[in-house]
Design a protein that fits this description.
Helix content: 40-55%
Shape: globular
Number of helices: 11
Distance between the termini: 41 Å
Strand content: 15-25%
Order of helices and strands: EHEHEHEHHEHEEHEEEHEEHEHH
Bound molecules: UDP-4-deoxy-4-formamido-beta-L-arabinopyranose
């Protein structure tokens, strides 16, 4: 019988893409979301792509009673936890908002997981590595102390999961550390929907190209890199989503080597901000209005993944080129303005 996967935050950017890939791989998916940071666009897009209406529970994971009734009704075999606040700057301004929401919701998930002996996949981030001494970073590279409350919640949730897996029989966990997820589904029916002025690079680029923003500021061109701009590992959102399918299969098919495992999810390929801008211009045949601006505080100079562990153990590999991903991001932005 098909296994049931609960996707918390399943109406968001990453959650919606993961829902599509899991369903196409034969899993039953239940989406739970409180719509605090998104509307129904991606949920509707998911249903259109899949040609069916997926179960959707509107709820808050900070509400333990709601969590219990969710488990009672759907009895998930595994949960993938995306439901969290994710704006780095906002977390610095209002740390309690982040600690209350991101920690409480995950503690509730761990509580029910303990009671029901469930599998947990936690969406972590390369932010846990801080400014690494060298890249590529492996899962063994040291974590640095977090530079924002948001980053701190990612580190704490990883630790909560590690400790619970160690202490409680029947609980298994995987943390996936994402590098920089970008792009959109090739159907252009789901994608990133930032509220207000985007913080992240690619939505800022696409909004500038479409005319919603006047000019992209490239934060810093005097970094010690070849072209002076920061280096990141941009991972296609559909590739990233597929890594979750591999991780879920590994958990549910009893293939884990340790009850708690961590995997980097990246391409292993560093790309500078300027290279990304130029690739966007080239693949989409347009000119982007950009200028160089001062460095943004808190930015690390360079970080990219060593994805060998995910390649070997999960049987997963990034497949899309940055050009393909940027074409998908642009198709999505155009679709939004139709
Ligand atoms: C990438 C590069 C900027 C905007 C953040 C979080 C991380 C993760 C993903 C999410 C940097 C430059 C950006 C702009 C620019 N988590 N840039 N002009 O900072 O690597 O990672 O998002 O939920 O935890 O920290 O991603 O896309 O903001 O920036 O020049 O207008 O683009 O300086 O070098 P980042 P980003």
């Amino acid at each position: 019988m098909a296994k049931t996967i609960l996707v918390s935050g399943g109406a968001g950017f990453i959650g919606s893409h993961v829902t599509v890939e899991l369903t196409q791989a034969g899993y039953n998916v239940v989406i739970a979301d409180n719509f605090s940071n998104c509307d129904r666009t991606n949920y509707n897009g998911v249903c259109t792509i899949l040609g069916k209406k997926l179960p959707l529970v509107e709820m808050d994971f900070c509400d333990m009673e709601a969590v219990r009734s969710l488990w009672k009704e759907y009895k998930p075999d595994a949960v993938i936890h995306f439901a969290a606040f994710k704006a780095v700057g906002e977390s610095v301004e209002d740390p309690l908002k982040y600690y209350r929401n991101n920690l409480e919701s995950f503690l509730n998930i761990l509580q029910i997981t303990r009671e029901k002996s469930c599998n947990v996949l936690f969406s972590s981030s390369a932010t846990v590595y801080g400014e690494p001494e060298k890249s590529p970073v492996t899962e063994q590279s040291p974590r640095q102390s977090a530079t924002s409350p948001y980053g701190n919640t990612k580190q704490m949730c990883e630790d909560f999961l590690r400790d619970c897996v160690k202490a409680y029989e029947g609980v298994r966990g995987i943390a996936l550390r994402y590098f920089n997820p970008i792009g959109a589904h090739p159907s252009a029916l789901i994608g990133e929907l930032p509220r207000g002025v985007p913080n992240n690079l690619v939505p800022y680029i696409t909004q500038t190209a479409i005319g919603k923003r006047e000019c992209l500021s490239i934060f810093g061109n005097d970094y010690p890199t070849e072209d002076g701009t920061c280096l990141r590992d941009y991972i296609d959102i559909v590739d990233l989503a597929r890594a979750h399918v591999c991780a879920v299969a590994r958990m549910l098919d009893g293939k884990m080597k340790e009850p708690y495992e961590i995997f980097n999810v990246g391409t292993g390929r560093p790309v500078s901000v300027l290279e990304l801008v130029k690739a966007f211009e080239k693949v989409n045949g347009l000119k982007l209005n950009y200028r160089f601006a001062p460095r943004r505080s808190g930015d690390v100079v360079a970080i990219w993944a060593d994805p060998a562990r995910a390649n070997e153990e999960l049987g997963w590999k990034a497949t899309r080129t940055v050009e393909q991903t940027l074409a998908a991001a642009w198709a999505w932005e155009k679709k939004l303005s139709e």
